[in-house]
Amino acid sequence: MPVGVRLTTDIEYRSDRLNPYRARVRWFDPATKLRLSLSGGKADENQAQEWLQSIIEAAEAGLSPSLATMKLAEYGNANMDLALRGLELNTLDPYLAGWRMRVVPTPCPLPVRMITNGAVDRAQTDPRHGGLPVP
Q1: How many Å is the Cα radius of gyration of the chain?
Q2: Which residue intervals of 72-114 are DSSP H helices?
Q3: Closest Cα to residue 12, out of 25, 21, 1?
Q4: CA dihedral 68, 72, 73, 77 (to 10 degrees)
Q5: Which comes out higher in pLDDT, residue 122 or 1?
Q6: pLDDT of 135
Q7: Number of other CB atoms surrounding residue 60 within 10 Å
Q8: What's the pLDDT tens digit per position in 37-69?
Q9: Per the count of CB atoms within 10 A, which of 22, 55, 82, 114 is most buried?
Q10: pTM of the predicted protein model
Q11: What own/partner pairs with CB < 8 Å and gap ≥ 24 does 21-30 have?
Q12: Is residue 123 pLDDT above 60, yes or no?
């Protein structure tokens, strides 16, 4: 997030939903001049506040809200060409097979920014998890 981009947040209560508290963050993309929005349903108002606070903290660290909430499989698919750049052709198939078998099917709800070395170590040593651990 470039310095000076202002986020606006709000929480809306919708009684007809399974997760009735909708937390929403909005901002203007300085490159495209478009107003962008990201929202998520939460079970209670405290969860909604915590979600908004995590988005604000990520933005203060320089991440856009859309990147801050992106899952690992989404991030990898969006950046796979860059990740594979410079690899020999005979290593592409095994790397991509590992990606498809270990990472993509993982039910891990962690955003990319929350994946740590410890989370990866636990995923490799704990047979209960097919990939990254579910918090």
Answers
A1: 18
A2: 72-84, 89-98
A3: 21
A4: 70
A5: 122
A6: 44
A7: 11
A8: 999 999 999 999 999 998 888 888 888 888 888
A9: 55
A10: 0.65
A11: 21/45, 21/47, 21/48, 22/48, 23/48, 23/49, 23/51, 23/52, 25/52, 25/55, 25/56, 25/65, 27/1, 27/59, 27/64, 27/65, 29/64, 30/2, 30/5
A12: yes
| Whole-number pLDDT of residue 15 | 92
Rounded to an integer, what distance in angstroms lies between the CA atom of residue 6 and that of residue 85? 35
CA–CA separation, 96 and 100 (whole Å): 6
**Tokens 């606006």 sit at which residue?**
8
By residue count, the chain amounts to 135
Please say whether the beta carbons of 69 and 111 come within 8 A: yes
Residue 25, helix vs strand vs coil: strand
Q: What are phi and psi of 14, to 5 degrees?
A: -125, 105
**Are 85 and 122 in contact, with CB atoms under 8 Å apart?**
no
Q: 115 φ, ψ to 5°? A: -80, 120
